[in-house]
Design goal:
Order of helices and strands: HHHHHHHHHHHHEEEH
Largest sheet: 3 strands, antiparallel
Number of helices: 13
CATH topology of the largest domain: Ribonuclease iii, N-terminal Endonuclease Domain, Chain A
CATH superfamily of the largest domain: Ribonuclease III domain
Radius of gyration: 20 Å
Helix content: 55-70%
Strand content: 5-15%
CATH class of the largest domain: Mainly Alpha
């Protein structure tokens, strides 16, 4: 039985374009009892701004908002179901080993890569200008939309459809984890120390965007090389910068 969405009132809105709905539901392996949840999960905030009136704010019924609220739900659902899966798959590992596995599997690069693999960019709704600028391919946009879809799955059908999608879409990433992965910053630090080199130096290159949606660019340098990372948090940008630098040092 479909679950009532506690975040927004239940109303009957316009239906998704039929071909787009079919494609999105095929990606997810789920037929929505409430297609407005699917539409909301696939709506980037730029597309919402195009539809809003020029003056003031308006109350948005279910299916007419951006995917940010569903992303909030989906992030928690993904963490729960991934933790459940890891506990089943590695019954003898403790938190210190399971934690890095979880962090890797729910990281932005991994989620964005999965979104690309399943064909999410094609069905994501963005403003025309943002589409031409390539926003559909941005890791942060793809990761957010994927989490929003997981939130929509949960609110429409509970944990089973969300669990099925996650275990199907993340199967390759899960199989690849033969050993608990190390955080990129830790791996970089250990690589440098093992070679008698100085620790990496992280610097904030820039901060842009509004307070509710910041964009941080972090640079890191060590061993005569440098890397950079861009993310919505300093910690995320530092991790991506460390990954970038490690790729160069290991080449």
């Amino acid at each position: 039985m479909a679950l009532r969405n506690p975040l927004v009132p239940h109303v009957h809105g316009d239906q998704l374009n039929e071909s787009g709905a079919v494609r999105a539901e095929a990606i997810l392996g789920h037929h929505f009892a409430r297609p407005e949840l699917l539409r909301e999960a696939l709506t980037h905030r730029s597309a919402l701004m195009v539809r809003r009136p020029a003056h003031g704010r308006v109350a948005l019924p279910a299916g007419t908002g951006s995917n940010e609220r569903l992303e909030f739900v989906g992030d928690r659902v993904l963490g729960l179901l991934m933790a459940e899966w890891l506990a089943e798959r590695f019954p003898f590992e403790q938190e210190g080993q399971l934690g890095p596995r979880l962090a890797n599997l729910v990281s932005q690069p991994v989620i964005a890569g999965i979104a690309e693999q399943v064909g999410l960019p094609v069905v994501l709704s963005v403003a025309p200008g943002e589409s031409r600028a390539g926003v559909r391919r941005l890791a942060t946009v793809l990761a957010d939309a994927t989490e929003a879809l997981i939130g929509a799955l949960y609110l429409d059908g509970g944990l089973p459809p969300a669990r099925t999608f996650i275990r199907t879409a993340w199967d390759e990433a899960m199989q690849a984890q033969t050993a608990p992965p190390k955080d990129a910053k830790t791996a970089l630090q250990e690589w440098l120390l093992a070679r008698g080199m100085n620790l990496p130096d992280y610097v904030l290159v820039s901060r842009s965007g509004p307070p509710h949606d910041p964009v941080f660019v972090i640079g890191v340098s060590a061993a005569g090389q440098s890397g950079s990372g861009t993310a919505g948090t300093k910690r995320g940008a530092e991790r991506l910068a460390a990954e970038d630098l490690m790729g160069k040092l290991s080449a």
